[in-house]
Write a structure and sequence with these properties.
There is one protein chain. With about 210 residues, this protein is mostly helical. It has a domain of about 80 residues. It has 6 helices and no strands. The longest helix is centred in the last third of the chain and has 44 residues. The chain is extended, with a radius of gyration of 27 Å. The N and C termini lie close together (about 5 Å).
């Protein structure tokens, strides 16, 4: 039996509008649902952000618990200057510059440690262990990392046969990696599609 719940109908209409892109790209039904989704998400994010600032910034500051909270509050207010006439927009650059500087400092540190140092450490693996499968896995990681790095970093106009062979091996590892990643993303999206179709069939149509 078809559901009589208004919210189930809303969810079903939104789902059908998004799925309509499969049959006809950029159709009016999809564009309406797309704009509606963006508007709802933006409104929700705005409300949640304002509530977070009020609970964790404005309220403690007005209560006298932490006077340093005036700094993020002022920086946030300076960004809102962008809503004023254009001649005042330069004031918001102070907040933007401060956030970019802090963000770059944190991201560079975390990137260097997480994506460079840790990756190098994880590549330095033993190839002589009591477990043969562990040796094979570690050897594949070392060879794959080295040949892939060589494929991207070292090249010349007339490479030797050995260099061409190393580059081909690196390309094979890269293609396998990209294929596995694409398959993982595809399975994830297919799972989401299956959940949506199950919702339409069971919750909406009641089959």
């Amino acid at each position: 039996m078809i559901s009589t719940n208004i919210w189930v109908w809303v969810n079903a209409i939104v789902a059908l509008g998004l799925l309509s892109l499969i049959f006809k790209p950029e159709n009016p039904f999809y564009e309406v649902i797309e704009n509606l989704t963006v508007a709802v998400v933006t409104a929700n994010l705005t409300i949640v952000s304002l509530q977070y600032v009020y609970n964790n910034g404005t309220t403690p500051f007005l209560a006298g618990k932490d006077s340093l909270l005036i700094l993020p509050i002022m920086l946030g207010l300076l960004i809102m200057v962008r809503l004023l006439p254009r001649k005042w927009h330069w004031i918001s650059r102070f907040s933007t510059s401060f956030m970019l500087a802090i963000g770059l400092g944190i991201s560079i540190t975390s990137f260097t440690k997480g994506d460079i140092v840790n990756q190098i450490a994880l590549t330095i693996l033993p190839v002589l262990t009591p477990d043969p499968m562990t040796n094979i896995n570690n050897l594949l990681i070392i060879v794959g990392t080295a040949t892939s790095f060589y494929f991207f970093s070292y090249s010349r106009l007339k490479p030797s046969k050995a260099e061409q062979m190393i580059a081909r091996i690196g390309r094979v590892f890269l293609m396998v990696s990209f294929g596995v990643g694409f398959a993982g993303y595809t399975l994830t999206y297919l799972g989401s599609m299956q959940g949506t179709l199950n919702y339409l069939i069971k919750a909406w149509l009641g089959l």
